[in-house]
């Protein structure tokens, strides 16, 4: 999947949408690349410290590119602050706190409070 440039049906659907939105656009060629998305149960990205010195920013849910500057800022602040979240941050930490989802993948139990 990573090497083939994406699914043909997805490419055709995107081309159809583009033609609908921009009917006067006549591209000489169309080139596509596959990408990977990570989804979280909350639909918010996971941003914060997993342990002292180990921070994460993941789970863009397919629409994080537009927010990448802010996600990067939050991730940098989380990585550099004591406790994993900047004290003066107006966004709620609970909306972005990383969660361990071991059980959903392996059937195992994660640590308490995960």
From TrEMBL:
Keywords noted in UniProt: FAD, Flavoprotein, Oxidoreductase
Query: Which Pfam families does this entry report, sorted A to Z?
Result: DAO (PF01266)
Transmembrane found in the keyword field: no
Instruction: Please indicate if the UniProt record lists Ligase as a keyword.
Output: no
One GO MF term, please? flavin adenine dinucleotide binding
**Domain of life assignment:** Eukaryota
Membrane-spanning segments? none
What positions does the domain FAD dependent oxidoreductase occupy?
7-77
Needed cofactors, names only, are: FAD
What Gene3D superfamilies does UniProt report for this protein, alphabetically?
Answer: D-Amino Acid Oxidase, subunit A, domain 2 (3.30.9.10), FAD/NAD(P)-binding domain (3.50.50.60)
Family designation: Belongs to the MSOX/MTOX family.
Q: Which PANTHER family match?
A: FAD DEPENDENT OXIDOREDUCTASE DOMAIN-CONTAINING PROTEIN (PTHR10961:SF10), PEROXISOMAL SARCOSINE OXIDASE (PTHR10961)
Give the protein's recorded name.
FAD dependent oxidoreductase domain-containing protein
Q: Which organism is it from?
A: Eutreptiella gymnastica
Organism lineage reads as: Eukaryota, Discoba, Euglenozoa, Euglenida, Spirocuta
